[in-house]
Each structure stands twice: as structure tokens, then as C-alpha cells.
Specification:
Strand content: over 45%
Radius of gyration: 22 Å
Shape: globular
Helix content: under 10%
Distance between the termini: 6 Å
Length: 500
């Protein structure tokens, strides 16, 4: 019987074009000549999903889109962010009464790589956004959503990097405590409905909830799921797992506190034995570590702070025992003590996969604000964060192992200017708040791109700060690799099915 001859090259190229997934490590290949076995090429298409920013009528939200200039891309391409088909508060579909209608005009349309583009919305009816980029706009495309809320639950500065669709997300650090109102935002970019399970894990293990099973997210739609509707238990520390049975979604948790502000909690990197949580503000007044292991084995973790002078063991918080299937927490207080810092978790004994996040508080008394730092992947080949300003941004870089040399580039401003680059040396085992460059003659906001030059792996985070009426509003975004490149085998590696 004759079978259709399939080229592995064609399959991999199609995967890159459709998903935009990238390999940020050196391409693996059989044979002696890796360069002949695979090529590292820019992705040709990617998607980003931005959650609905706020339920507050006095919220103001800014969006900033940026694509770094990447060699080898097509000369043409498009990118835009448009409103998803909004869902009503009771979860009814977009066709039901009370649901918001889809906006036909794009909220934001980037003009060219290398220059940020901004847009804004206000009020409680701002929709979730679905974005697609192809051609020269796809590699490394990033969109930042930043919201200012002057009063009420979650007041302060809230920020999130719009996420790529996926099938599993872990969120240690969520809560159903009395002062917290936490939502899981699910956004579906595809033409068919997605089916999702939301699992909750507290200090005693899994929390039974049939309400979190078989949640349908319609095509091109967004669903905010209030965690307190999934369980009656009041738990200060929860781990949330979003498991997609069918389709793909983007997922983020919005954590709103009645007393100490709030922010977005981005997903932790996938479960691993060692984790890095970079960019704790030097003036943090309270830091809380939340960790969870999804397997059947307990995890014992060494807790270290990568400071500007090296790795330090916090007094009284040397280790954390994480029971299998249970959420554990550890208060670290003002662990940074006025210096830049990142948390490094390593196994004390055997390596057991865990996920983790930090809840960080700045300020005192009634003038407190909260942000979150999830464990993140290394920068890899390149990472970018948008919506920076010369006075309100802090870039923190850590090299938990070997010393590394890192290039940081400030893009042109959204309203003019030219790009500027600087190179920094980050000593092994340290965290540095670097004096990041700003664009020459720059106006508006700009993007920062981090590219390792030599040495060991680096991790990075950016803090945005804006004080309003004495309240130190801030938000933190980590900088994992931007998935802008993909390893594609050469035609010489074509594995064809032979006739039988």
C-alpha cells in the first residue's frame, strides 16, 4: 500500500507557523554537525490574550504592544488586538441578554517592529482582548496591560503581560480569604469552545468542587470565574490549577484585597525541582512564599536570597517542607532589607517538582500595596517587557549560578526617540537592579529587551511604580524567554515513510 510521504521539515514549519511556540535552548539534533541538522528561525505566527482589566468604574487601563526587530523575518506582516466576545457576570454566552457585544474595531494595531504602540480604555466594561501577529510582527511580540485603580478593593497599580494560549496553568498564591476577591480569567482565542477544569489545593490538600469542572469558554470569548463560587472554604493560601480538557485558553488570576491593594498573579513556570523568583523590591515590607508540589512525594526546599553580594540564607527561614498535594506557605518578612533580591529554591534532598510564587507588600498601615512574583523560566535567548518609563521602572537581573554578561536594550519611545543598549556583568549568585538605558530623545513609554551574551542562565523582572495619594502602587512582571525563535530541521533530516 502506498502511503503519503511526509516531510519532518514541513511538519515542524507548520507547527511554528500555527502555534508560534519556540525552543529557547540550543537545537538538539542527531549526528555530528548540529548546524546542518537544524536551523533556528523566527516564528511566523503567534497569539496573545489579555484579560478584562477591572470591575471598577474608576479604573484606567493602558496597553503597550512591542515587537523587537528580529533578523530573518519576512518583510511583511500584521498584528492587532481586538475585543473578545465578552461574557456577562453570570457566565452566560455572548448571545445572551446582558452580555457585551464584540467591538469590531481593533483596540490596538502595531505599526512596525522596534517601536511601541499604546492604547487605553477606562471603566468596568473594558473587554478582554484577543491578539494575533504574523510575519515580522510575530517573533517576541509582547503586550503589557497596566491598570490604575484609585480606590476600593485592589486599589493601586495592576499589571500583567498578556499570555499565549496553553492547556495547563499553575497559580500558587491565590486565596479565598475574607479580605480577598480572586478571579480566574479564561480567554479562548479559537473558533471552537474550550472546556476547562479549575482545581483548588489548600493546606490540607485538594478541595472538592464539582462547580469547577467542565467550564465551557465559548469561541473568541472570555470568562471570569470567581474562586469563592467554587468553594465555601476560606483559605488564605491556595494553589489553582487550570487544566484544559479541550482547546486552548489564556489564563491569569486577578487577586484583589480589601485592605492592601491587589495585582495580577501570573502562572508559575512548569513544576521543577529548582525555581527562581526574581525581582523582590528592595523596600518590600512583607514577603510571603507559597509553594505546591503536584506529585505524590513531599518536597524539602532550601530557601536562599540572591542579594547584590551573593547568596544568603534568611535567618529562621532556611528550608520549606512542602507536603505532597498540599499548599505550603512561609513568611519571610522584610527579607531584602533595603537591597535588591531574588529568591532561589533548590532541593534539600531528592528533586521533587514544585510550583511557587511570592506575595510582596510595600508600604505600611493603610498605605500598603501588593504584587506577585511567580517562579519563572530563564531569559533564554531574549526577553522583552513593555510599558517602561524613565522614573517608574526598575529592572532586576539575577544570575543564580555562573557569572553572566547581559545586553539590555531600550527601544525607541512610543512617541519618538532612538534605541540605546548597555551591557552589564551579573556576578554569579547575585541580583542586581541595573541602571537600564533609556531611549535617546525618547518620549512616551518604551520596551526593555534583555539578551544574555555569555556565562550562565539569567532571570529577570521589571517593577513599575507609581505613588498616588501616598499609596506606593506597584506591579511586577517577570521576563521569561519570548518564544520568538523555533528550531526547524533542515531538509537533510527529512524522515519519510517508505512504501510498503
Amino acid at each position: 500500500m502506498n502511503r503519503t510521504t511526509l516531510s519532518l521539515l514541513a511538519g515542524m514549519a507548520a507547527l511554528a507557523a500555527v502555534t508560534g511556540f519556540a525552543s529557547m535552548s540550543e537545537p538538539a539534533a542527531a549526528g555530528k554537525d548540529t548546524a546542518q541538522a537544524a536551523a533556528v528561525l523566527p516564528v511566523e505566527r503567534t497569539s496573545l490574550l489579555c484579560p478584562a482589566p477591572s470591575t471598577s468604574d474608576i479604573a484606567d487601563t493602558a496597553y503597550t504592544s512591542y515587537t523587537p526587530v528580529t533578523k530573518g523575518t519576512r518583510s511583511t506582516g500584521t498584528a492587532e488586538l481586538s475585543a473578545a466576545t465578552e461574557q456577562s457576570a453570570d457566565g452566560k454566552s455572548g448571545s445572551d441578554k446582558g452580555a457585551k457585544k464584540k467591538t469590531e474595531k481593533p483596540v490596538l494595531t502595531p505599526k512596525e517592529p522596534g517601536t511601541p504602540v499604546t492604547g487605553d480604555t477606562s471603566g468596568s466594561d473594558a473587554p478582554a482582548l484577543v491578539g494575533t501577529a504574523d510575519g515580522r510582527f510575530a517573533p517576541g511580540w509582547t503586550v503589557q496591560e497596566t491598570t490604575e485603580v484609585a480606590a476600593g478593593a485592589g486599589r493601586g497599580l495592576q499589571g500583567v503581560n498578556c499570555t499565549a494560549p496553553d492547556t495547563e496553568f499553575w497559580f500558587p498564591g491565590a486565596s479565598t480569604d475574607a479580605d480577598r476577591t480572586d478571579y480566574v480569567h479564561l480567554t479562548n482565542p479559537d473558533d471552537s469552545a474550550a472546556v476547562v477544569d479549575i482545581e483548588l489545593y489548600g493546606k490540607d490538600g485538594a478541595i472538592p468542587s464539582t462547580v469547577g469542572e467542565d467550564i465551557t469558554v465559548p469561541a473568541h470569548a472570555s470568562e471570569p470565574i470567581l474562586l469563592s463560587t467554587l468553594t465555601d472554604e476560606k483559605q488564605p493560601d491556595l494553589t489553582v490549577r487550570v487544566n484544559v480538557r479541550s482547546g486552548r485558553v489564556g489564563a491569569s488570576v486577578q487577586a484583589l484585597d480589601d485592605k492592601i491593594g491587589g495585582d495580577w498573579l501570573a502562572a508559575s513556570t512548569e513544576p521543577a525541582g529548582s525555581l527562581v523568583l526574581p525581582g523582590i523590591p528592595k523596600d518590600a515590607t512583607a514577603v510571603r512564599l507559597i509553594a505546591f508540589t503536584p506529585g505524590g512525594t513531599d518536597a524539602d526546599l532550601n530557601v536562599r536570597l540572591a542579594s547584590p553580594s551573593g547568596l544568603i540564607t534568611p535567618a529562621g527561614s532556611e528550608t520549606l517542607h512542602v507536603k505532597a498535594g498540599m499548599t505550603s506557605a512561609l513568611d519571610l518578612g522584610d527579607v531584602t532589607r533595603g537591597e535588591a533580591g531574588s529568591l532561589v529554591l533548590t532541593p534539600s534532598d531528592q528533586s521533587v517538582p514544585v510550583v511557587a510564587a511570592l506575595r510582596v507588600v510595600r508600604g505600611k498601615g493603610s498605605d500598603q500595596e501588593t504584587a506577585f512574583i511567580p517562579a519563572t523560566a530563564p531569559v533564554g535567548t531574549r526577553a522583552t517587557v513593555a510599558d517602561n518609563t524613565s522614573k517608574g521602572s526598575t529592572l532586576s537581573i539575577t544570575a543564580p549560578g555562573k557569572t553572566a554578561e547581559v545586553k539590555v536594550t531600550a527601544s525607541a519611545g512610543s512617541d519618538g526617540g532612538t534605541a540605546v543598549s548597555k551591557t552589564f556583568t551579573i556576578k554569579g549568585g547575585t541580583t542586581q537592579n541595573v541602571a537600564a538605558p533609556v531611549p535617546n530623545g525618547g518620549k512616551g513609554t518604551y520596551a526593555l529587551t534583555v539578551e544574555p551574551v555569555s556565562g550562565g542562565p539569567v532571570y529577570a523582572a521589571r517593577t513599575l511604580a507609581a505613588t498616588e495619594e501616598g499609596v506606593p502602587g506597584f506591579t511586577i512582571q517577570t521576563l521569561p524567554g519570548d518564544r520568538g525563535m523555533v528550531s526547524v530541521p533542515h531538509a537533510e533530516q527529512d524522515l519519510s515513510v517508505l512504501q510498503q
